[in-house]
Prior knowledge:
The chain is mainly alpha-helical. The chain has one domain (about 30-320): Na+/H+ antiporter like fold, CATH 1.20.1530.20. It is built from 16 helices and no strands.
Amino acid sequence: xxxxxxxxxxxxxxxxxxxxxxxxxxxxxxxxxxxxxxxxxxxxxxxxxxxxxxxxxxxxxxxxxxxxxxxxxxxxxxxxxxxxxxxxxxxxxxxxxxxxxxxxxxxxxxxxxxxxxxxxxxxxxxxxxxxxxxxxxxxxxxxxxxxxxxxxxxxxxxxxxxxxxxxxxxxxxxxxxxxxxxxxxxxxxxxxxxxxxxxxxxxxxxxxxxxxxxxxxxxxxxxxxxxxxxxxxxxxxxxxxxxxxxxxxxxxxxxxxxxxxxxxxxxxxxxxxxxxxxxxxxxxxxxxxxxxxxxxxxxxxxxxxxxxxxxxxxxxxxxxxxxx
Length: 324
């Protein structure tokens, strides 16, 4: 029962599926869609403002001190995964719709998650401080690196907005609020930290809002009629294969790099995550006017797979670490 319980989708995943269903049945139209688009921009800005206010200055200092470890994690996130995406691109282009194939490439260019990377590193007995630094740094650098990587890998294809204007808008929408929140941390940090359990729902609500808007617009443009069921199943299989290749490969690289076991665990769980929370807002800007719903679908599938698989792996590693 316990193994089955770990494989059961969590409440947020169920809410995500419910949001996709709602958007498929009742998409926002006309003026409501315009208001929803503006509302999602505001919600995203607030979300990243709070992320900045929650990042301790000590985490930045510690990140500078353990630079070799963080460079390896960033290399796994922004070099290894894009290479895997490029290698898989011919097969993905042949088996999937162009939008889903682009979404798979976009998935490979995304930064790491923050909360789940830290949580799984802690569960497995890894270096939590390093996970905090690396995951936060990855999320911040992703604002710049993800659009740049997509420009490098996909060029102007796949309904991408103008790269330079997209990066500028991403900086305004994500980076500027993040920096503002961090600069105000001496005055509001204690209050934000006290509300940390509540703010988790702010993250999730923002993602659900953006997903509803994206899928609603995609449904109106014929997402489900243009995307055959075999392509959806193949997308899920591609995400599972990507995770199955990446996790052992990242673990092997971490072990061969000579780090202590606690650091190896941090590399594994920070270097194989892809952030839905950062990815959806970036996609909203980067693919403005394009088939956003189909493009973020691989990210949503990978998100659930990484949570289920890493929960099992982290639990087993934690038991091994405790008995050692």
